[in-house]
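Cross-posting from the modeling subforum.

Setting up a comparison between two proteins and wanted a second pair of eyes on the formatting. Protein 1 (sequence, then structure tokens):
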Amino acid sequence: MSISRQNLSIVIVTFKSNDVIHDCIKSIDEEIQIIIVDNSNDIDFKKKIENTYKNVKCILSSENLGMGRGNNLGIQSSSTDFVLILNPDVILEKNSINELINASKKFLNFSVLAPISSDPKYPNYKHLNNIKQSNEKDSPFKVKSVDGFAMLINKKKINQIFDSENYKKEFHYFDENFFMYLENDDLCKRIIDKKGEIYVVPTSKINHLGAKAVDHKYKNEIEFSRNWHWVWSKFYFQKKHFSYPRAFIFGLPKFFSSILKYLLYFIINNTNKKKIYLNRSLGFYNAAIGKKSWYRPNINS
């Protein structure tokens, strides 16, 4: 089955994203249903968004679910067979959706399709076996994984390849143990391991602002959270797919480096840098002792 606008939903997980969400929504065709999962539980945000855009439904979460759980909630709330996951700081170019639809007619068995980042310096995919394909400028090409800020999921195909393993329902899509970072890599690896197919469509372009999904005034707290979760998620990913010893050995040098840098910035009294490297070391420590990804940004307004 190929994609149509009537059988496609877009899921966007937001958290204090008022500064960027409108440009994202305006870049999407009005006939496509958009589901926003707002992790900041902002009733005023919900009212404003739903009153402004007739094709948008906003779900308020009672807590900050993170990316994995937030995306799963949006996917499970959709009634379409295809769901395009977007970050709020992504803007689609004019023909992005059309090109994804055209590609779906050629590759009927895809599990994931992804547009391509308009900035070639920051590719949003990893090649299979690290081999660059020569035809990627024109035709869709298979990849190992795609970044989670723009990935189109074929729900039926993913359910099909995972059902035979009696996976827990919540892990058909994103593993909810990831709060942020690498939930997309985890899903892509599970798909590839089950012989699923992931394609990038180079004629479907997007602009990703990068690290702009949360309003600028919360920059420091979000940066602290990112550093904690980046290290935690890397450890969890390695442990889940390979082994605990590999995760520990892989992360140990950066753990010691973070401790040393924390001490340096403690001595020179650089508060922000000190907190960043403390959080990196604590992300590793919490993952190493088996604690969940519990850290949340301290945002009260």
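Protein 2 (same layout):
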Amino acid sequence: MLAARVLAAVRSGKSLNEALPRLSGEPAAARAAAQDVVYGALRARERGEFLLGRLMARPLAHAETQALLLAALYRLETREDAAPMIVDQAVAAAGALANGAFKGVVNGVLRNFLRQRARLLAELSQDEAAFFQHPAWWLQRLRRAWPKDWEGIVAADNRPPPMSLRVNTRRMSVGDYLEKLQAAGISAQPDGSAGLRLSRPLPVDRLPGFAEGWVSVQDAGAQRAAELLDPLPGARVLDACAAPGGKTAHLLERADVDLLALDIDAARLERIEENLKRLGLAAEVRAADCLAVEEWWDKRPFDAILADVPCSASGVVRRHPDVKSLRRESDIRRFARAQSAILDALWPLLQSGGRLLYATCSVFTEENTGQIDAFLARWANARRVGQEQWLPDDAHDGFYYALLQKA
């Protein structure tokens, strides 16, 4: 029932960040179990909706009971050995929703699925969106952009993500922290200049020295931002879209720089300040819209700028599976317009010879190479000195980076 409440909120248009607080106040074990079902059901959303479309003439009028069916179908597909228990639990949960009006419907739908499983799955295999668990428009874009890689991308999207760490090298070396993990019985392997990838995810309170700032959770692909921008000690640096602060902190861990971290969402700035305090780092943190330059810029140019722009999140959808439900194809054009405006607003703030790193967590061409090609056509004093496209796989999420230098 807990999972159904969150799923119903997402199906109504809320993000997971807005919906997950509905689990607050619940026991930790129940909260974790519900969250696991929510994430799994959202990753398999197209599959679940297809199956319900075959099992029901029309969706139920009660949103939470309809979401309960999605959650139960996900569990039936992933826990075949526990089918009777799952059906019984779902029917019991339905009894606590809508005054129990749909208990019989829930029981009938789930038992029909078990009886007709083979036929339903055969039909599902003929429906591309349901089979690949992505909206049809999303699959079409991936095919155009990545004709040889698109199936690997969607397969990675449908799996739980890896858990990677970034060692605070101001406190200790990667090798020293790896030894501390091994002493705690935690298996990991080095990944990148400051990274480690865990063999399996675990709560951060089990990580040695997490509260003391020895380490942070950050995907290996995200760690490339600070490595690519690589400002020199003493440089004046702008992180223009900084929250929640992982890339901000990594820049500060690598060098003593004068860093201004901006974000338009004042509430999210608290995350940045909490992270910096835990890690023993300092920066100027300010709530501001990076587009409203005249409201926050002091006219002193920056040596380096990180523009980690808002995007479709198509490279990190396995971490944010609500994106499959909330994103529309028209959003890609909207994001592209916003990205273009941010680039044009920030470029004049860069010192001659300075570098700007454009970053997205997208795999869509319009937000990545297409965006930078158009920017270079607009600005004669800009040149691309580096570019990387990371596609999601078992080791990291999907990211795009373009390193630009001002003539």
